[in-house]
Amino acid sequence: MLSCKTMRARVTLLLASILLPVVPAPSLAAGAFAMGKCGAYGQAFDYPAENEARTAALKQCKGNCMAIIMRRACAAFAVDMANPCGAHGYAVRQRISASLNEATRECYKFGGKACVIRAWACDAKG
Length: 126
Fold this sequence. Notes:
This protein is of the alpha+beta class.
């Protein structure tokens, strides 16, 4: 028979293992979004490092493209469908809705007439 002290120690260990929060494995949180002329884009998310994400996004984008980094966030790219090689806008925000809205606003701000979201991506917890 177990002593009261031993029983109490086992119950404490059992409760601690049940009640302690589970620590998730570290998530991959590097992402990049590349944009170019005439609606060209590339995206990469959940990479272990920013330079790897940037390289992957630029590789997908056709032409002379620039890349922006997403750090546990969302990126959106809007183009003017009346002239896809004209005005465009992009944004990186913590929530997808904010990035979509801001990218569209930026497109209109730079002269777009019929701005629409061309592409979007979220990285890790974005």
